[in-house]
Write a structure and sequence with these properties.
globular; mainly alpha; single chain; 12 helices
Length: 313
């Protein structure tokens, strides 16, 4: 999962030399939606006999509405909105800084949101970690140069979107957690592939509407057979999306939200390595990386007590 996601930022950076961020995101979702539809059909065919022998579970109409609300919110925050924001950030400031902000700040936001929605305890370690993470985030985004955040900077939107992407991903993570709780409460079989399929379908529709709204349909259609773009889209659809999202969603059956987020820590360093190997034009500096390390330390401080308790058990 981490390999696919880490390499995906560099693949996107290569693809946007030929198409817009929205186009490559839509290519990715079309391929993933078709793939998920085939996988779902195959799984349903295999389970058909088993499902016929199982008692049907009656689900309240209110729960059905909540289920589809969660699916649509997940498709907006974790697919359509997230991909548009993170790919746009890559187009402005290269692959490494968006990867660092997305992966290292997401655990911070996830922990913060979990305190609100799941009533996880506020500990001294979490407070200290949040304070340290705030300073690290400043260095991570600015590299110690506050002038990159002034309105005259042509790359300002890229830095702002890089900061916004972990908020979208954290929201998606919490929504998925809520979706699973709803399915368990209603006694409904929680199928990660089915959920991911619906999220992909809605995300594909949302991105298509964005492409039309931004008058990029001609760009989208004219580059659909470009071998580099097509190859990038296939990799992004099958690797980071289907495999990566499935593992991410499935992991919430076994772990808490803040613990699942810890798997993201190594990803930005892989992105930086791939960026160097493929000689991408990456403006990341020592201070950006140092800020990322500070945020990483903050995340470990936030989760230190929790990890210690689990080891004792």
């Amino acid at each position: 999962m981490i390999f696919f996601w880490g390499f995906s930022f560099v693949v996107v950076d290569i693809a946007i030399e030929f198409v817009t961020p929205l186009s490559i995101a839509l290519y990715r979702l079309i391929i993933s939606s078709i793939s998920l539809a085939l996988i779902t059909f195959y799984l349903n065919f295999r389970r058909k006999s088993q499902l016929n022998n199982q008692p049907k579970v009656k689900i309240k109409k209110a729960s059905i509405k909540r289920y589809w609300s969660f699916i649509i919110l997940a498709s907006t925050t974790g697919v359509a909105g997230y991909l548009f924001i993170i790919y746009t950030a890559v187009s402005y400031i290269g692959p490494s800084i968006p990867s660092f902000t997305d992966c290292l700040l997401s655990p911070i936001f996830i922990t913060f949101i979990s305190i609100i929605f799941f009533k996880e305890k506020i500990t001294r370690n979490k407070i200290i970690g949040f304070v340290i993470a705030s300073f690290g985030s400043y260095l991570l985004i600015t590299g110690g140069n506050i002038e990159i955040l002034i309105a005259q900077n042509p790359n300002l939107l890229g830095y702002l979107f890089a900061l916004l992407s972990p908020i979208f991903w954290s929201s998606y993570t919490i929504i998925i957690k809520k979706l699973k709780e709803l399915n368990m409460k209603e006694g409904k079989n929680d199928n990660d592939i089915i959920n991911l399929s619906y999220i992909s379908y809605f995300g594909c529709l949302e991105l298509f509407l964005l492409v039309i709204f931004r008058n990029e349909f001609t760009i989208f259609t004219s580059n659909i057979l470009n071998p580099i773009v097509l190859g990038s889209a296939i990799f992004l659809a099958l690797g980071p999306f289907i495999i990566g999202y499935y593992i991410w969603n499935f992991s919430f059956k076994k772990f808490e939200s803040s613990n699942v987020a810890s798997f993201l820590y190594i990803q930005p360093f892989l992105t930086l390595l791939f960026s160097l190997l493929f000689q991408r034009n990456d403006p990341i500096t020592f201070w950006n990386i140092f800020g990322g390390i500070i945020v990483l330390v903050a995340v470990f401080i936030i989760n230190f007590k929790q990890v210690k308790i689990k080891k004792e058990d």
